[in-house]
Structure formats: C-alpha cells, structure tokens
Design brief:
- Helix content is 23%, strand content 24%.
- The radius of gyration is 20 Å and the shape is globular.
- The protein is α/β, with parallel strands linked by helices and 363 residues long.
- A hairpin with a 2-residue loop joins strand 3 and strand 4.
- The protein has eleven helices and 14 strands.
Length: 363
C-alpha cells in the first residue's frame, strides 16, 4: 500500500464525492472517520439529513451562518436540500475556504443518481466530480435488497462500494461476491466501523502544512482507538513514470478498458510531438475522465507521471500495459489526439461524455 508525491493539484478544482447508502449502512460513521483521519486536508461536508448527523467534532464547532458549521480542522458542514446544493458548492469552493475535498452525504432515502447529475451539471469552474461512494450494510444486505430493490441500480452507478459491518456477518465472502456481481467495474472494499483509508478518496496533505492551526489529529487521541491499527480497507497503488512520450491512441485504449477495481488515476502525461507545448493533467475516478492541458514550465523535465489507485488491482499487469503506451515513432498522426481532446472540457461545455454513465441500466 502506498501513494506518490505526484502533484495532481495543478487544475485548481476541488473533487466532490457523493456518499450514499440506505439508512443504517454507516455513512455518517464513514464521514466521521474521514474527518478524523484527514491529516492536513480540509473537508467540506454537505449533509442533507442534518437532524440525524452525529459528527463528533461538533463539540469544537462554531456556527458560520445558516445551516453551516465550521469544524475544527477547517472542515465545513452544511445542511442542505437538493435545491440548495449549488449554493453550498459555490460557498465551499471559494478559494478563501482552503477546502481540499467536498463530501456530500446523501440522506438515507436520497436518489444518488440525481445528486451525481447535479454535481456534473454544476457550472462552477472550481469543482470536479470525485465519484459516487455507496455504503452497504453487509449484515443486512439481503434484507435491504428485499425492501429496497433500487439498491441494485445504485450499485451499478457507484464508482466505489464500501461493504461495511463485515464483522457482523458470518458469510462475508458471499456478500462481497454478490455486491461485486451487481457493480459495473466499481472498486469494492470491505470495512468495519466505516474505516477506509482517506487516501483512497482524496489526497491528504501532510499535517506539517497546517502549522498554527488545530487539526483533528491534535484534538483526538487515536491511541485509544482499538481499531485504528488494523484497517481492512487499504488500497493498492501503482506509480508509473516514463521519460519518453506516450502515444495518445494507445493510452486511450488503456483508459477505455481500465479494469474492475481501479478507482482513481491522477498525474501528468507527455504526448511529445502531438502537443509539444503542453503537458496533460489527468483526473479519472470510476468511469469519469478528464484531461487538462497546461503549458510546460520552461525548465521542466518532459516526463509522464501517473498514480493509479484501486482495490485488488494487478499492478504488474497495469504497469506493463502502460509501458506499451510509449511512443516509438518521432512523428505525430494528425488525428491521434482526437480521443484525448474529447475529454478536455471547454469553458462552456457540459459533461456530455459522462451523462451516458448515468442512464438507468437495463433491467
């Protein structure tokens, strides 16, 4: 398990993660865990079921305004309904907040598809879709499906599924296998007490960057946490560096066929003669993909640097496939970048390439 120091923060867009799941699945517990383990990162939490929220840090919180609470780590918690979502996204994405990631905790009866649509439809230039995380209760999964058959549709849309409360079931392998059969290439991770590694979802800043400000790590003594030392839900990661350009058609074939369990891809790509002036920052989460061209710094080394993060991924095979994307000819095919440019969003373009992913799956 590990991560890389590749700086994928150049496109100054804040990922917006939708956290969904039926009542009792453990969404709030997972959100609390992320808030406590965020390191130096600032989380903006939008909660549209505020009456039921039990965020431990409320004890050190102070009100910032209507329905908005400031948490000790610079985190913000907003109580909203769907009509207010864009307003709060706009508020949290303001540069002055210093927010690194926004997590929307849906109510237990919310339709996650609609929340995802709203995030994708947002015209705010400061945010980017960060994935749909669906939390399920392993011990109650069969009963939940019987009461709420729409959960199959939710799982088919998810980018990451957290199978929570595995310590409360005797047939964990069967439940995990069933959940995997209902997803569409999503990463499926087991958990107890909602404990997943925050690095799976977002890039945690080193705590040293927060000198002079209290963080959750300062406010809570984790030494007494019996479960802190054995997270079940570590992620797998692969760091890839190439000092020769990548061929865009080969890379797009790789991205179009990315395997089950590969949740995030981040970093920079050098396409060499296809665009000698720019490197391309890449952001992929689940089936969502976007490239950002940006000028090479005058003295920058021309490198491709990528980090792939997932659960149960075959890092050796993925590394070999990326090696096969290297360009072995000095010239550029004039149409070679078309596949990449489909995922470069213009200033007034909608997320058309992602809307197809939100269509209801066939029955």
């Amino acid at each position: 398990m590990g991560n890389s120091s590749v700086d994928s923060g150049s496109p100054q867009q804040i990922p917006v993660v939708v956290l969904a799941g039926f009542l009792g699945s453990g969404k709030t517990t997972l959100l609390n865990h992320l808030l406590h383990r965020s390191g130096g990162s600032r989380i903006g939490a939008i909660v549209n079921d505020f009456g039921a929220i039990e965020i431990d840090a409320m004890a050190v919180a102070g009100a910032l305004g209507d329905s908005t609470v400031s948490l000790g780590n610079g985190c913000l918690c907003c109580a909203v309904d769907a009509s207010e979502l864009d307003l709060y996204l706009d508020r949290l994405a303001a540069p002055a907040t210093g927010i690194d990631v926004i997590v929307i905790e849906a109510s237990g009866l919310a339709e996650p598809q609609e929340l995802v649509r709203m995030v994708l439809a947002s015209e705010h230039p400061g945010i980017v879709y960060g994935g749909l995380v669906e939390v399920v209760d392993a011990a109650e999964f069969d009963d939940t499906r019987a009461r709420h058959p729409e959960i199959d549709r939710h799982l088919a849309l998810a980018d990451l599924v957290v199978v929570n409360k595995l310590d409360r079931t005797d047939d964990a392998d069967r439940v995990l296998g069933l959940v995997r059969s209902l997803t569409d290439r999503a990463a499926v991770v087991p958990a107890t007490y909602g404990r997943i590694d925050p690095e799976f979802l977002f890039d945690c800043r080193p705590s040293e960057e927060r000198v002079g400000q209290l963080s959750f790590d300062d406010l809570h003594d984790h030494g007494a946490d019996d479960h802190a030392g054995h997270l079940h839900t570590g992620y797998d990661s692969l760091s890839f560096t190439a000092d020769v350009p990548l061929e865009p058609r080969r890379l797009m074939r790789f991205l179009d066929s990315r395997p089950e369990g590969l949740y995030r891809i981040k970093g920079y790509v050098d396409f060499g003669p296809y665009d000698p002036l720019n490197r391309y920052a890449v952001h992929a989460v689940g089936r969502f993909l976007r490239f950002y061209p940006e000028p090479w710094a005058p003295e920058a080394a021309r490198l491709t640097q990528l980090v792939l993060i997932g659960s149960g991924i075959d890092a050796d095979t993925l590394g070999k496939e990326l090696q096969g994307c290297k360009k072995d000819a000095p010239h550029a095919d004039e149409h070679g970048m078309w596949g990449v440019l489909r995922y470069v969003q213009g200033p007034d373009e909608p997320e058309a390439e992602t809307e197809a992913d939100l269509e209801d799956p066939p029955a």
